[in-house]
Design goal:
The complex is a heterodimer of chains A (about 260) and B (about 450).
Chain A lengths: L3 E7 L5 H7 L2 H10 E6 L11 E7 L5 H13 E7 L1 H5 L11 H9 L22 E3 L6 H12 L11 H7 L5 H5 L35 H9 L5 H7 L9 H9 L1
Parallel strand pairs in A: 1-2, 1-3, 3-4, 4-5
Chain B lengths: L2 E6 L9 E8 L2 E9 L6 H4 L8 H6 L6 H16 L5 H32 L4 H7 L1 H22 L8 E2 L2 E2 L5 H15 L2 H9 L14 E3 L11 E4 L4 E3 L3 H4 L1 E3 L8 E3 L9 H8 L5 H9 L15 H24 L17 E9 L2 E9 L5 E7 L1 H20 L21 H11 L4 H5 L1
Antiparallel strand pairs in B: 1-2, 2-3, 4-5, 6-7, 7-8, 9-10, 11-12, 12-13
Classes of the chains: A alpha/beta (about 260), B alpha+beta (about 450).
The structure holds iron/sulfur cluster (SF4) (2 copies).
The site of one iron/sulfur cluster (SF4) has 12 residues of chain A, from loops.
Chain lengths: ~260, ~450
């Protein structure tokens, strides 16, 4: 069988998901033997054009340059995998869709001329078809390896769709909202991280993006009964996934 | 003769997106640009209006490779603003976390990103076919650094366990015991690591007077301090940093650039070795001496020595991690403790640490509720950019005649067949271990 051709691409992000691939130290050399890497700029000078069976794309679209690369990659790739929460849902750069990116830019760079073109941070699916989403900030190593091994067999894996709360129950954590009066995004966030943060007594910040069919109204009533205001929700629960609709839905349920 | 341009569209084997453009005017170098075209996320503006406890998780996302540094630096700034004292155990654990990050980051850079240049491969994965031993050692060290970060920080990247005043949960004694064993195995690699690096000649392509800046701890070698030293003999306080490292916006780069007294300067492992190498002890000191000593090649303005400085620091970080673990386990401090009470107050706080690539500065202004009003982040790579451009210019001036010619002959190195000036420019830029996401942020 021919080797699977793969490309790893980065738009605007922190490279955490590409790093997670490099962090598969035990498996990296074996993976390298099984795939033909056509592009992985962070790790290799090799750059081969043409079709790719699987393109992993990290980061969100924050500038015209990102969009051009995304379209080019989509055109070459049979399968496009959104790698990490930025690519799936917009991530941190997209945390507040009410903010005007031009004003953000001016706050950082001053008014000394318009240096470069930007656009509002958006996930890949705003612009192109995405075949598979692997959320996480960064992605969980085991899920990344599972995805690669499924792709080698020609399929996609099953990634958990249950909320972080389900992971918390499995680990028998006490609930941070009920027992410790904290603001936690676990009920609205897709699990699969083994409730990393609540297991450390740290509230979930929603880094894996919104769970698909969360019951927003119940969650808002639950939080409101504990004195959590709309302002707190806006400031503390909307750090990663606003473009995926989580922000609007949360706000709506508060009315 | 018309104008000519050397263009490296996309620098590879670095974190993030950047290129190099050299403008030649006749035979002369007119300008050199380190083009940073990474998208901006505008963190300094994004965090405004957010509560202080969301700060570290947000800004750790500036960069994955040095996410622990960003998280710790942000918390130091919050603690500075609110007047919070941290416990000795928290201090030691944070240092252990930073040592883990330094091991991971240096192993990644040295073995996976830079060594392929010296051994003539497009990537470490290609290099591994012929030099499996070196690739595996790099991967093993990297893995150890990640395990330390995972154990202390709760995740190898973007550590959620680093809170204001302490940790969500302190790692258990059994988790620390497990690290002791792994660090011991890492330390067994030290002699091989040092000999491997000593056997790879560093090309003497450039020796240009350079100003080095690094933090100087109250004692010993280390990554946390409130005092900055420069190789011109000056020292500065934390409050002076933003003004001595003058940041300006340049038109060809999304990253700002810094100048110290109107001059480019360098930060990072090499700068730390130049300024504090005499404080190293144990095997790190032996390694430093093996590579020519502090007064040897490191301070001569050849950026290619950064790799050897990183090798010295790998040894230092392994030894320090072992020492920290021993102190944490010998019962001198209680294993469980409550975090100090956090009472926000209005004011400004500054965090300053040595990230793997150099001085990292976070400054925040808070209102009386602890909401962020203003933020300023100065990253190591942004500080290095002017110096990188200067070096690229000097290299082009010196080796300009090699453009388009095969078989670049570098002093102290076998001829690089099939490689010419653009290759050398990339080698120079990579030696600084640029972290481009950080530089833009
Ligand atoms: S999803 Fe998280 S880890 Fe991945 S690029 Fe974005 S910020 Fe970085
Ligand atoms: S608990 Fe929440 S914030 Fe933490 S890793 Fe899981 S999804 Fe991300």
């Amino acid at each position: 069988m021919d080797q699977l051709t793969v490309g790893i691409f980065g738009l605007t992000g922190c490279a955490g998901d590409q790093l997670t691939l490099l962090n598969c130290e035990d498996e990296l050399l074996a993976i390298a033997g099984k795939v033909r890497m056509k592009s992985f700029k962070m790790a290799s000078t090799t750059e081969v054009g043409g079709e790719i069976e699987v393109a992993f794309v990290e980061g969100s679209v924050c500038q015209p340059r990102d969009l051009a690369l995304l379209r080019e990659v989509r055109g070459r790739a049979h399968n496009l995998v959104a790698l990490g929460t930025c690519a799936c849902f917009g991530g941190v750069a997209a945390m507040d869709q009410r903010l005007d990116p031009e004003i953000l830019k001016e706050k950082v760079y001053g008014t000394e001329g318009d240096l470069f073109a930007i656009q509002r941070a958006r996930p890949l699916s705003t612009y192109v078809d995405v075949d598979f989403m692997l959320p996480g900030c960064p992605v969980e190593k085991e899920q990344l390896l599972e995805t690669i091994s499924c792709l080698l067999k020609g399929s996609f894996p099953e990634i958990p769709t249950t909320p972080v709360c389900a992971d918390c129950r499995i680990r028998e954590n006490v609930c941070l909202v009920i027992e410790k009066e904290q603001v936690c995004c676990g009920a609205l966030t897709r699990g699969g991280c083994k409730a990393r943060c609540p297991s450390l007594d740290v509230p979930c910040l929603g880094c894996r993006g919104p769970v698909e069919d969360a019951y927003y109204r119940a969650e808002m009533e639950f939080l409101a009964a504990r004195g959590v205001t709309r302002e707190v929700v806006r400031k503390e629960m909307l750090l990663f996934s606003t473009p995926a609709g989580m922000g609007e839905r949360l706000e709506k349920e508060f009315d | 003769m018309g104008d000519k341009i050397i263009e490296i569209k996309h620098l590879t084997r670095v974190e993030g997106h950047g290129g190099i453009t050299v403008f030649l005017d006749g035979g002369k170098v007119r300008d050199v640009h380190m083009d940073i075209f990474e998208g901006g996320r505008f963190y300094e503006a994004l965090v405004r209006g957010k509560p202080y406890h969301t700060l570290a998780p947000i800004v750790s996302r500036v960069c994955a490779i040095c996410s622990a540094s960003h998280a710790v630096c942000a918390q130091i700034a919050v603690e500075d603003a609110f007047g919070i004292e941290i416990s000795p155990r928290t201090r030691l654990l944070r240092d252990l976390l930073l040592q883990g990050e330094n091991i991971e980051s240096h192993a990644l850079h040295l073995f996976l990103l830079v060594l392929p240049d010296y051994l003539g491969y497009p990537s470490a994965l290609d290099m591994a076919r012929d030099h499996g031993h070196a690739a595996r050692m790099g991967l093993a060290l990297k893995q150890l650094g990640n395990l330390i970060q995972e154990t202390v920080g709760g995740r190898a990247v973007h550590p959620p366990n680093v809170l204001v005043g302490g940790f969500g949960r302190m790692p258990s004694p059994s988790a620390l015991e497990n690290l002791v064993e792994k660090v011991r195995m890492g330390m067994e690699m030290i002699p091989i690591l040092v000999e491997l690096m000593a056997g790879i000649p560093v090309p003497r392509v450039l020796e240009e007077e350079t100003v080095y800046l690094a933090l100087l701890p109250p004692e010993g070698y280390g990554f946390v301090s409130r005092r900055i030293a420069a190789s011109d003999g000056s020292t500065y306080s934390v409050e002076e940093f933003a003004s001595i490292c003058h940041e300006r916006v340049v038109s060809h780069s999304h990253a700002k650039q810094s100048l110290y007294s109107k001059r480019p300067f360098a930060v990072g492992a090499q700068s730390r070795v130049v300024l504090a190498g005499d404080r190293l002890e144990g095997q790190a000191r032996v390694a430093l001496d093996r590579f020519g000593g502090q007064q040897g090649p490191f301070g001569q303005g050849n950026p290619l020595f950064n790799g050897l400085a990183q090798a010295v620091e790998l040894v230092y970080s392994l030894e320090t991690a072992a020492r920290n673990l021993q102190m944490l386990l010998d019962g001198a401090f209680p294993t469980e403790e409550k975090r100090p009470e956090i009472v926000p107050r209005s004011g400004t706080g500054i965090g300053l640490i040595e990230a793997p690539r150099g001085i990292l500065y976070h400054q925040y202004e808070f209102d009386e509720e602890g909401t962020i009003v203003d933020a300023d982040i100065i990253t190591p790579t942004a500080q290095n950019l002017s110096n990188i451009e200067r070096d690229l210019r000097l290299i082009t001036e010196r080796y300009g005649s090699m453009i388009g010619r095969d078989g670049l002959l570098l002093p102290g190195m076998a001829p690089l067949n099939g490689k010419d000036l653009p290759f050398l420019l990339q080698v120079i830029a990579r030696a600084y271990d640029p972290c481009i996401s950080c530089s833009v942020h």
